[in-house]
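Record format v2
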Amino acid sequence: MKYYGGCDVGSTYTKAVIVDDTGKIAASVIRRSKMNSAESSEKAMADCISQVPGINSTADLGYIVGTGYGRNRVPFADENVSEISCHAMGVHTVDPTVKAIIDIGGQDVKGIAVAPDGTVKNFAMNDKCAAGTGRFYEAMARSFEMTLEEFSTLSLKAKTAVPITAQCTVFAESEVIALVGEGKAPEEIAAGIQMAVARRCFVMAKKAGAVNSITLTGGCAKNEGLKKAIEKVLKIRVTALSVDPQLMGALGAAEFARRKGGAKA
Amino acid sequence: MRDLKHRVFFEHLLSDVKNELVDEALSEGKLALGYSCYFVPEVLLNLAGCFSVRMRAPGITDTSIATYYMSEKTCMYSRSLLERAIEGGYNFMAALISTETCSMMNRCHEHFEMLNLVKEYNEKFFVSHIDSPFVTKDYALKHYEKQLRKHVLDKLNGVYGVDVSDEALLAAIEKHNEVCRVVSEIGEYRKAENPPITGYEFHLIELISECCPQDLILPYLKETLEELKTRRADEKPWYRVRVVLAGGENDDPEFTKLIEDAGAFVVADRYCFGSLPGREEIIINDGETPLSAIARHYIETNQCPRFMNPEKVQGRKVYLKQLAEAYHADGLIVQQMKFCEYWEYERMYCQQVMEEDYGLPCMGIEKEYVNTSVGQLRTRFQAFTESLEIKKLEKEG
């Protein structure tokens, strides 16, 4: 059996996936990124390799593709592919019926339209500021002195949402503190934050060509509160994936590696 | 591919507006005339005893003082020029020729007068404003010619005694055309399948032709052209796809390099002004004076999105399509500076028309005057390159 690797070095998390020559996932890991991208990728891939019997190092993989913001610094990669192409391919391998993706990563939000063969048909990026990204959620959760999971769960308890007007992460944090000071219910403020991010996703969803449904990828895709807010605000169904949505970039990279390494698509 | 002989020197020339060739011309007593728009005919600023300098602010990092005067909702190019002027970066200039083209740049140039900039070092320094037409009708052309006479020639003659006779204009046209011929011939190499030049190198060459005195830069341009005739490209083309880069003002070759680092060869440049348009020779038709020929030339070749008449609006899209065909481009990148009042609309419209009507894949980029968010831009360019590459492979079967 031959194996192929994909390594997605993101700004917050590094993900690695190994697939076999049929495209089936043999192993995957998600690790917090370090300052040094090369070190992050080496650690993640080593952990991933350790889960697959019969292979001991990157030299045992038929082909490796690096992706994510640190893609140029993956020392063992045979080549790198942008995370936009990789997310499209990753989602396509899991669910070929998906035509539109919103990828909410640590430092940007991307809308991606997927072609029938899993390649990118069109894309749009919001990378001007941290509003609506993973960093934004980290700041908001910090204001509530909660983990991201706790924050998401809290927002689901709200019956109404307090509108959040600030777009900027820094100002939104101040606004949240002010609202808490005014005595607003924390779950309603949390729901308001989810709604604000969902609204920001609208443009990306439209640019990705979303009509009736969309899929979320990236770390923020695990945020149930956001999923519900998107469905409510955008009046669009969020399609769930059978594989961890945070792995889609690395999975796409592994699939590219599999195809480039000689295995048939 | 071996490096161009003068590449490092060219990069050095672009690192400062007052570069060593500008210094050399100043030491000969020549007048440096600044401009920042295609509506100011470069040729008129290269009359005997004068030389044109394209206004740039290389290496600018902070525009705080200019932002105070102009507000943060103005384009960074206009704020950068004002900031550099306040720093004293243009104190060597004899005049700044301006146009009414865009309100932000106009505001920048007005501040040269309001803050009494440069005048402290040259009391004869003046800012002159040309009223440029919005349409291309005959009456607009006549108005434009009058404006050029009144706000450029008469001012230069009146303040500095510059010879603005028809003979002097003819000599300026001849010199200008020679620069255009050489730059255009260099640019033609980009049409080759495996070209002996990169888009980055061409951007350097084109810019130095606008930022240095023509007499002094011409020998270097000619030498580079000769070098390209025998320069061998690597056996296999280095690029993955070919793109036309269009949009507003762009005087930063590093931006072109960023695109090319992602594997997309910038085969043609269609900015506010540069080589396409900008390096077409000026032809004097029968019955035309040198000035009327110059006025007609700069209106005819002008691709500014400020023009609202239907033939110009549609003509800009046709021009892009023609460029894409002539330079065998796979796609188009349209870049626009944040808050640019004309390109903001033009970019959106352009993307839609080029994709839907002409089937040319297109990507829009909003940028600042200096390269920021390089990591994000690199991702965008790489993703666009990958999508073009796949489309290209599909087309080739």
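The helical segments of chain A are 37-49, 83-94, 134-143, 148-156, 169-181, 186-207, 224-234, 248-260.
The longest strand of chain A covers residues 13-20.
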